[in-house]
Amino acid sequence: MINVAGYKVDPLDEEDVIRICPGVQDVGVVAKIHDMYGEMVKAVVVRDEINGNAVDQAKIIELCK
């Protein structure tokens, strides 16, 4: 679990959400240290180069909210 200002975030849930975005081949979610919130969610996305889809960062962020 990632502890974001007291909220527990399951990295596997976030990965499931990000994987449905067009252009995403694979993703890994980890915790990143944050001075104010303790931890923040950090996603490392592998773009699907075979199908040539662009990854829309704004769409990924909106889906994860």
Task: Record the SSE blueprint.
Layout: E1 2-4, E2 7-9, H1 11-19, E3 24-34, E4 38-47, H2 57-64
Antiparallel strand pairs: 1-2, 3-4
Describe this structure in words.
The protein has 65 residues and is an alpha+beta fold. The chain is built from two helices and four strands; from the N terminus they run E-E-H-E-E-H. The longest helix has 9 residues, at 11-19. The protein is elongated and about 40 Å long.
- Computed over alpha carbons, the radius of gyration is 13 Å
User: Pairing-aware structural class of the strands and helices?
Assistant: alpha+beta
- Strand percentage: 35-45%
Write down the secondary-structure element order: EEHEEH
Poorly predicted segments: none
The biggest sheet, with number of strands, parallel, antiparallel or mixed sense and barrel status, is:
2 strands, antiparallel
Helical stretch count? Answer: 2
Task: Based on Cα principal axes, name the global outline.
Answer: elongated
Number of strands: 4
- Strand line-up across the major sheet: 1-2
Instruction: Kindly state the percentage of residues in helix.
Output: 25-40%
Question: Which key terms come to mind for this protein?
Answer:
65 residues; alpha+beta; two-stranded antiparallel sheet; 2 helices; 42% strand; elongated
Quick structural overview:
With about 60 residues, the chain is an alpha+beta fold. It is built from two helices and four strands; from the N terminus they run E-E-H-E-E-H. The longest helix is centred in the N-terminal third of the chain and has 9 residues, at about 10-20.
